[in-house]
Every structure is written in C-alpha cells, then in structure tokens.
Specification:
This protein has 9 helices and no strands. The protein is an all-alpha fold. The radius of gyration is 21 Å and the shape is globular. The N and C termini lie far apart (88 Å). 31% of the residues are buried.
Length: 209
C-alpha cells in the first residue's frame, strides 16, 4: 500500500535489530580508525568480517532468526526453515553463538586487520572455525534429517518459491562453509610462514655457569 509504505519503511529501519547493526558498524569503524593503507586483499577480508559482525551475525541471524525482530525478514526466515517457528534448540543455539561470540570475534578480527596486528591470523583462524562449525551444524543437521524443515526442491522444479527459499536462501549457507575453510587454511599457512621465518633463539646449554 503506497499510503503506508513510508511508515513501514521507517518502522523497519528503526527496528532494534537494524539499529543494532548500524550502531555496531558505525562504532566499530569509528573506534578502529583510518584504514586506507590496507591492501586490496586485506581490505576485502576486513569488510567480510565487519559486515558479518554487524549485520549477518547481529541484525539477521542473531536478532531476527533468534529473537524474531524485523517482521518482514522474520517471515522469510520462518518460511525458509520451519525450525525458526519453534525455536528448535540446535538452530536457536547457533543464532545465539552468532550474536554473542561470532559477532564480537568478527569485529575484533576486522580491527586486527585494519591495525595490521599480529593477532589477525589467529583471530581469523578462530573466527572462521566458529563460522564453519555453525554452518555445518545448521546445514548438516537438516541434511541428515532429509530436509524435513526446509522447502527442498526434490523434483528440481525450480519454481520461484524453490529458487528463493531453497536454492538461494538455504543454499547461501554454503558461502559460510567455503569462505571460512579458505580463510582457515590461509591463516594457518600465514602463521606457519611467520613461525618458520622467526629467528631461532640461541641455546644457553653451553654457557659457563
């Protein structure tokens, strides 16, 4: 309805989940400082963790999937996966891990990349491990249960409903499997390289007492 569209849009933008995401994004970028010196690769990594920490883990999965804010998005969550209708234990716990553990870790990792801190590699490895496990448990339990809660396109009909809620909506979980695996390997390799390049401390066994 055009007469209520503006009011609904304002209400949506002022929803606590949306405000929380924008607040975290703003405060994190402001508190971290300038990051113009980042290389293209590190800039993309920093943006990945910033957007995940602000909107994916807080606004979307944490507060909407877990606590049912943002009415319109919540309706899509419920249509996508029936577990959101009942707050099924495993899926709900994953949303809260996203809200209270993965989001802060993402923001700390973003800050570490912007500051070029040595902690960026272990933080990347830790954060990506949490993301991978969250996706595997959320995605994998439904596969084991033969997609009883999602609108699986078993006949490959590729209707709009299936394209939106199964192939795109549910299939998007693959992103949080593929990218974290890549980041975990990349971080592990960087840590090993740094350790191999570190100077070996001289032995003190032969120093006279």
């Amino acid at each position: 309805n055009p007469e209520t569209a503006v009011a609904h849009t304002i209400s949506y933008l002022l929803d606590p989940a949306m405000l929380a995401g924008f607040a975290v994004l703003t405060l994190t970028t402001w508190g971290t400082g300038r990051w113009e010196k980042l290389s293209g690769h590190n800039r993309r990594l920093a943006m990945w963790f910033l957007l995940n920490g602000s909107f994916i883990h807080i606004t979307m999965d944490g507060m909407t999937g877990g606590w049912h804010f943002l009415d319109l998005l919540d309706k899509h969550y419920r249509t996508l996966d029936q577990r959101f209708n009942t707050d099924e234990a495993t899926s709900w716990l994953i949303t809260q891990l996203e809200l209270f553990i993965m989001a802060p870790l993402c923001l700390l990792t973003f800050r570490a990349y912007v500051k070029n801190s040595p902690s960026k590699y272990p933080l990347n490895l830790l954060t990506s491990t949490f993301q991978l496990l969250g996706a595997v448990f959320f995605f994998g339990t439904e596969i084991i249960n033969d997609f009883v809660n999602v609108p699986a396109d078993r006949e490959f009909a590729f209707t709009f409903h299936h394209l939106l809620y199964f192939w795109f909506g549910y299939g998007a979980n693959v992103i949080w499997i593929v990218i974290p695996i890549y980041l975990m390997w990349s971080s592990y390799s960087s840590i090993v390289t740094k350790l191999e390049a570190a100077p070996v401390p001289k032995s003190t066994n032969n120093i006279p007492k």
